[in-house]
Amino acid sequence: MKDNLLIGAGYLWRGFALLNEPGIRRYVWLPILINLVLLALGIYWLVESVTSWEWLDSGWFGWLAWLVVPLMLLLSTLISGYLFSAVLLLLASPFYGLLAGKIERRQGHVVEDESIAALIPRTLMRELVKMGYYLPRYLLLLLLSFVPGLNLLMPLAWFWFGSWVMALQYSDYTLDNQQQDFRASREQVATQRWTAWGFGASVSVLMTIPLLNCLVPPAAVIGATLWQLQRQSDQSRLS
Q: What is the value of pTM for the model shown?
């Protein structure tokens, strides 16, 4: 089985290529619409909060408004983007589970039908399990970022771990459909670490681009599903 960064990035582009395919687009555009609505509401609220600060128009702070307001608006946009992307993953997890199942069926795999009433609580609980894995590690990285000397290396550590998280996050939808627990999901993704980092790094970079980042999650679900199915197929042939 080949395992390298370029293969991982390639699976994300394959995901983009399938976004508007008939039978797939209905699982794609509703989460995107939710994302746009949440992002717009978040930016609107933050912009209103920043521009309503009275100290920007009073005293000696007033002359700094031309500099502070654009910077605060940029910061508000970035913060709301990350915050609402996290919220979207939680809210959209049932749709992404269905999307992964649709891709599995297109690849000839049998997927058990599951009612939306059963799917929603299962996928939401799975997201909470994943958060239980990610958040303590992110907290550790945050604490290490304040250690003199070590903090110089932390941007690379953040990007490395963030790439791993993205690969694991989006691969888990199909592995969850296959009724594998989260520990097994981590072990499976780890069998191709370079591919995982290539895939996750591509996702992380594209998520920083406004508007395009609305398309990245469903494309990542599709790409990661194709990757995991191909990896399992390769393993079966070799066993």
A: 0.81
